[in-house]
């Protein structure tokens, strides 16, 4: 597949591609890139699965429930495939990587299985010029073999906020996590590629870029000046792009929160005051069993340094409850850490044993007990989220309009802190970045008015 995109077929003749994306934002980005690659093959995106010539399921393997969704969705596709045997069904993403042949064995209706590091092979697979299952980790950077983002076609819609993957894979090997196996070793994309892609996005009207990676703050690379750059330096270089108003990044590991990155939060106005920094547990015993390689106190010290650099920063995190060996005291330590940090929002999950991970065979915490702990933690996090949202009322914040709201004349966009904000703004356009006075906090959004 060359970098040169072929002209898509006329829309009447164009084949239709339906993509369902599960899981994390890296999958959202990958789905866009696959849509672009298939666009070069004459496919246009459809939101209606029933009219699709090809259905691509871009899957997530992080917890058992996520992986099982694939099989129930494939089951639901059986009648459609029976009606139209030429319908192509593809499975991409981390379940494809982890379960490969098992997918085609369990679900013979699947035509092709492509792992997350092999998306550049997808067009050849669809043409029948590559094997049915491709899950190897090639030497080359898959992104170099996908169409350049400037060769956009109808497969990709315009949006003022975009994702840009700068780093993939993970070398941390947390004892519960499949990512090092499904996404492979940590790889950083080169500076020049990232800057070129960011400039292309901005030239197309993008005003906010979220830099993505499983360990995005572990990104490093040879800079334009010949020196080794860390992630903070990369952010400073991206911030120099004219017309780019906002930069975000996700997701990060506490141990890669280098000084230059913390300083970027102090110095770079485009870097939004929002940081997702998973801690998983507040108990040192459990953190050790999880192979997190930091203590609760180290995490708290890090939070202090980040808040010193950017006092208004909103912090979010991920938690796992019911990890093997977790006692009541360990759980209490997690609640204590949450109380101490005061998060803007957070994701919490019940531990799900994943085949192939070090923790898989360890004796599990009783399921009902884990459920109760999850509820208790979520209740606390929900209280903090509500308080953080209510604290926005009366403040004036930047809001980037992303789409029309539910009511006529209304727009909805994201605040600096990533809250959805509904604003009456009949004259406004998608892509406008405006100042909004926050009037009201609803359960999952804010309402505001245009500031004078
Ligand atoms: N069980 C439950 N939660 C998990 N996560 C990762 N692996 C598991 C697992 N086996 C959670 C972690 C991670 C987030 C993306 O998903 O909290 O940060
Ligand atoms: Fe998984 Fe840990 Fe790597 Fe995050 S840092 S992707 S939780 S192994």
UniProtKB/TrEMBL annotation:
Residues where [4Fe-4S] cluster 2 binds: 170, 174, 177
Cofactor, free-text remark: Binds 2 [4Fe-4S] clusters. One cluster is coordinated with 3 cysteines and an exchangeable S-adenosyl-L-methionine.
Cofactor(s), names only, from the UniProt record: [4Fe-4S] cluster
Top-rank taxon, per record: Bacteria
UniProt keyword Cell membrane present: no
Reaction(s) catalysed by this chain's protein: N(6)-dimethylallyladenosine(37) in tRNA + (sulfur carrier)-SH + AH2 + 2 S-adenosyl-L-methionine = 2-methylsulfanyl-N(6)-dimethylallyladenosine(37) in tRNA + (sulfur carrier)-H + 5'-deoxyadenosine + L-methionine + A + S-adenosyl-L-homocysteine + 2 H(+); 2-thio-N(6)-dimethylallyladenosine(37) in tRNA + S-adenosyl-L-methionine = 2-methylsulfanyl-N(6)-dimethylallyladenosine(37) in tRNA + S-adenosyl-L-homocysteine + H(+); N(6)-dimethylallyladenosine(37) in tRNA + (sulfur carrier)-SH + AH2 + S-adenosyl-L-methionine = 2-thio-N(6)-dimethylallyladenosine(37) in tRNA + (sulfur carrier)-H + 5'-deoxyadenosine + L-methionine + A + H(+)
Domain Radical SAM core residue range list: 156-390
Gene Ontology cellular component annotations, sorted alphabetically: cytosol
Keywords on record: 4Fe-4S, Cytoplasm, Iron, Iron-sulfur, Metal-binding, S-adenosyl-L-methionine, Transferase, tRNA processing
This protein's record includes keyword S-adenosyl-L-methionine: yes
Pfam families: Radical_SAM, TRAM, UPF0004
Domain TRAM: from-to ranges: 390-452
InterPro entries: Elp3/MiaA/NifB-like_rSAM (IPR006638), Methylthiotransferase (IPR005839), Methylthiotransferase_CS (IPR020612), Methylthiotransferase_N (IPR013848), Methylthiotransferase_N_sf (IPR038135), MiaB_methiolase (IPR006463), rSAM (IPR007197), rSAM_horseshoe (IPR023404)
Main subcellular location of this protein, as a coarse class: cytoplasm
Annotated binding of [4Fe-4S] cluster 1, by residue: 24, 60, 94
Localization per record: Cytoplasm
Subunit structure as annotated in this protein's UniProt entry: Monomer.
Family as reported in the entry's similarity comment: Belongs to the methylthiotransferase family. MiaB subfamily.
Function: Catalyzes the methylthiolation of N6-(dimethylallyl)adenosine (i(6)A), leading to the formation of 2-methylthio-N6-(dimethylallyl)adenosine (ms(2)i(6)A) at position 37 in tRNAs that read codons beginning with uridine.
UniProt protein name: tRNA-2-methylthio-N(6)-dimethylallyladenosine synthase
Species in which this protein is naturally found: Paracoccus siganidrum
Encoding gene (name): miaB
């Amino acid at each position: 597949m060359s970098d040169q995109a072929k002209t898509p077929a006329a829309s009447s003749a164009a084949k239709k591609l339906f993509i369902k994306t599960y899981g994390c934002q890296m999958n959202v980005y990958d789905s866009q890139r696959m849509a672009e690659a298939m666009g070069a093959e004459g496919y246009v995106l459809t939101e209606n699965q029933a009219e699709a010539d090809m259905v691509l399921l871009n899957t997530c393997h992080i917890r058992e429930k996520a992986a099982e969704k694939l099989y129930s969705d494939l089951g639901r596709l059986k009648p459609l495939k029976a009606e139209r045997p030429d319908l192509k069904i593809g499975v991409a993403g981390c379940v494809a990587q982890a379960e490969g042949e098992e997918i085609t064995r369990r679900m013979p209706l699947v035509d092709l299985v492509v792992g997350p590091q092999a998306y550049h092979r997808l067009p050849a697979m669809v043409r029948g010029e590559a094997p049915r299952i491709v899950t190897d980790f090639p030497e080359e950077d898959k992104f170099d073999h996908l169409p350049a983002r400037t060769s956009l076609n109808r497969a990709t819609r315009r949006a003022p906020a975009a994702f840009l993957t700068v780093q993939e894979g993970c070398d941390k090997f947390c004892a519960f996590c499949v990512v090092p196996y499904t996404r492979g070793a940590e790889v950083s994309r080169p500076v020049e590629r990232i800057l070129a892609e960011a400039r292309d996005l901005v030239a197309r009207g993008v005003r906010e870029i979220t830099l993505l990676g499983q360990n995005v703050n572990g990104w490093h690379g040879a800079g334009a000046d010949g020196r080794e750059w860390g992630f903070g330096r990369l952010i400073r270089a991206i911030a120099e792009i004219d017309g780019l108003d906002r930069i975000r990044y996700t997701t990060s590991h506490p141990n890669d929160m280098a000084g230059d990155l913390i300083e970027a939060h102090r110095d770079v106005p485009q870097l939004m005051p929002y940081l997702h920094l998973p801690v998983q547990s507040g108990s040192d015993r459990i953190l050790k069993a999880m192979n997190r390689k930091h203590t609760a106190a180290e995490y708290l010290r890090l939070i202090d340094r980040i808040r010193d650099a950017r006092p208004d920063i909103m912090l979010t995190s991920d938690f796992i409850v019911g990890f093997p060996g977790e006692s009541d005291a360990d759980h209490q330590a997690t609640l204590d850490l949450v109380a101490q940090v005061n998060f803007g929002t957070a994701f919490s999950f019940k531990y799900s044993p994943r085949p192939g991970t070090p923790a898989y065979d360890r004796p599990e915490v009783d399921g009902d007990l884990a459920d109760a702990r999850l509820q208790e933690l979520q209740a606390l996090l929900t209280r903090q989220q509500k308080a953080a949202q209510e604290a926005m009322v009366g403040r004036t914040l930047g809001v980037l309009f992303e789409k029309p709201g539910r009511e006529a004349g209304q727009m909805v966009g994201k605040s600096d802190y990533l809250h959805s904000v509904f604003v009456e703004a009949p004259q406004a356009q998608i892509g406008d970045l405006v100042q909004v006075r926050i009037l009201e906090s609803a359960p999952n959004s804010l309402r505001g008015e245009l500031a004078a």
